[in-house]
Amino acid sequence: MSQTPDFVLFLGRFHPLVVHLPIGFLFFAFVLEIFGKKKKYENITVAIPLALMLGFLSALIACILGYMLSLSGDYDENMLDSHFWFGVFTTVLTLVAWLIRVDKIKLPNKNKLKANISALTVIVILLSVTGHYGGNLTHGSDYLTKYMPFNKKEEKVLVPVEKVEDAVVFDYLVAPILDAKCTSCHNESKKKGGLSLIDSLSIMKGGKGGEAVVVGSANKSEIVKRVLLDPHHEDFMPPEGKTPLTEEEIAVITYWINNAFAGFSNTVGAVKTPENITKIASNMLGLSAGAAKQASLKALPKIPDDVLKEIVAQGFRVSELVFNSNIYAVELPANTVTANNSSELKSKLETLAKIKDNILWLYLEDNQITDSYIDDINQFKNVQKLKLNKNNITDAGISKINLPQLEVLNLFGTKITKASLPVLANIKTLNKVYIWNTSISKEDIENTNLENDVPDFVLN
Q1: 3-state DSSP call for residue 379?
Q2: How, if at all, do strands 317-320 and 328-331 pair?
Q3: Of 64, 68, 56, 51, whose CA–CA distance to 8 is shortest?
Q4: Does some domain include residue 92?
Q5: Same domain for 177 and 95
């Protein structure tokens, strides 16, 4: 089978843009027809032929572009056929409605009025059905009904485990990650890249890009390779606009492939499980000390979508750390703030403060952070992991840090000196501080009079 030319697929991707034009034109024609029946509005019906013609032309173009898009093979064929043919019927009927309206198809005046309103009514119905199938192709077949009141949800119920060793690796750890980050684009009705991750058979079948999972070899598995690419790479997954996988989520999937050999029934206790994975798994299952520490945060209210969108619009990347917990990792990508726009940093942090209680990990690497911004950062009282590396932070800034939950602090490439060591050692919650590429040396740490219970200072 010959491969579809890239240019055809490029044009096909304009379908979602163009398809809204006939919807607007044809609904407009329908509204004109309804209101035009009233005597005082009868003059507006002169615009109906133009609306129908524009609706037909844009629908025709949308059909052509939609066909081009379908050649990618990323969609369920049965649902795609329904969407396509309903679109064709809508386009043809729109042409017929226009021909009747401009008297190219002759009808008695008595029947013409009925034909006009009937045709437009059917067109609106067809538009709705076509749009419904299109929405299913794009968002999945349960998109419309998922949150419908009284909708009975058929979900696989997992029995809570008392020990992490009893948890089935795939069901309890991997599947929730795939459901949250992957299956909206890789399901039975929408198979981007020909890949579905909805069940074990589909996962092992893989997609157009190769084997999604290579048993025992995560570095050869597309599901891992794609999430480790540079975020700007065209093959990076998930695509732009979707929430990327966290380091912990990637570690879990890698562990499942390498240690559990991509099995669907292996338990954590039955395979070799590194300590870091045990901690992550315990946290996901609510069994660890870390999870207990977060228990009070689980009662936090859901952040409104408009607030999250406002924060993302400021350049932040927001990822939920624990499923349905409203606890987030937030990153301001390096060099989002430069010397040229450093005046914007204050407003960005003020916007982010709208969810200050919900942030556990805060990454602000290389973004013109200076000592003067430490007070702004101190608002985020629940932060456990803070990255301030490659910023102009000095000893004065370190002395102002007041984050009662802080466990990990990255100060790589900052301006701090050995004078900050006692200050950092006095932050009792700190477990690890990254200080390489600063003026602090191993000798400085050894020669500073520190108590035994101090953070692990990492120099390389």
Answers
A1: coil
A2: antiparallel
A3: 68
A4: yes
A5: no
